[in-house]
Specification:
By secondary structure, the chain is mostly helical. It is built from 6 helices and no strands. It has a domain of 80 residues.
């Protein structure tokens, strides 16, 4: 039996590329911290560099002489709760690993979605199409009433 899907058939169970999200009511700091550390560890596993190279790349982006591999290990160890990464260092980590998707992890619980490059243009196209539809509706309503022209002679 083939597991390939016929491209002409729709897959109703596929996840959307741009999911709609709602913000969580309250931040569960422990859950967020653990998730971020797990995702950062995943970024390291998927990166084309080892931990010492990632640390060196981070130091370069931050203009520091060095960052140790132990620091990287502390940022990704769920057991080390006192070692949260700062925003500037997180930004350097994302660049050092090439894992831009980590930004989406950060904003997802706020009901936000990360768009990259031309994806933002798609959102703008959709916004303008929606606006055009609203204007067309207003024009239709205006056209539905006859216009009485009064001319004085």
């Amino acid at each position: 039996m083939s597991t390939k899907r016929d491209p002409s058939q729709m897959d109703f169970f596929a996840e959307p590329v741009f999911p709609t999200r709602d913000a969580v009511e309250q931040i569960d700091l422990d859950r967020f911290r653990a998730r971020l550390k797990r995702e950062m560890a995943r970024a390291i596993r998927e990166a084309p560099f080892d931990r010492p190279t990632i640390a060196a790349r981070m130091a370069h982006y931050l203009g520091l002489p060095s960052i140790s591999k132990a620091t990287i290990d502390a940022y990704t160890a769920e057991s080390k709760q006192g070692h949260d990464i700062s925003l500037p260092r997180f930004k350097a980590f994302v660049r050092a690993t090439g894992a831009l998707w980590l930004w989406d992890v950060i904003v997802s619980e706020d009901g936000l979605l990360l768009l990259q490059g031309d994806e933002a243009r798609l959102a703008e196209i959709a916004r303008l199409q929606q606006e055009r539809k609203e204007i067309e509706g207003q024009l239709k309503a205006l056209r539905s009433k006859p216009v009485t022209i009064r001319r004085s002679r």
